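Example noted here:
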Amino acid sequence: MNRFAAIFAGTAIIAIAGSTWIYAVTRPGDDVFAQCRASQIAGGSDTIGGDFTLVNSDGQTVTSKDVITKPSLVYFGYTFCPDVCPIDAVRNAEAVDILEERGEEVTPVFITIDPERDTPEVMGAYAGNMHERMIGLTGSPEQVKAASQAYRTYYKAQDTGDDFYLVDHSTFTYLVLPEHGFVDYFRNDLTADQVADRVSCFVGKI
């Protein structure tokens, strides 16, 4: 299936993507994953991530424990995003396929930061077009804000007064392990192979 065609079919607006900056203080001697890390996080990796409560594509309320049952690539974006989000989501889906070929099962997760438009049905269709195992999550504005704050992501909807607004947002992908929580993040300039290689290092140490 042509994943790009499936996503770009309904988009005709210009993307404006925000970004966030994470600076690093790590303690390699205390970190079992130290040799796998290429990113550094202010205060350490335990300052990012945590429990969240959201809504899946079936309209069911789920928690992070329900969702993160395997190593997961977690991304915050929105389905109306015309280029940055689909490019990142496709990259993550391709990385998951590469990892599967290596015998490593990783779950791609897409969390919306635009819950007003991204209903459970919309999220289910979007995630399904990206990857058969991708989990699409939405929720109330409060639930989405709480999840975003837990992962220290940024988003802000532009006030255009119509239904075709864009949302500025950060573009990191987060690697989350069931027993360890957040362990690393990947910028969107990495290739699928590079993401897969870095994920493999972490998974190999579980």
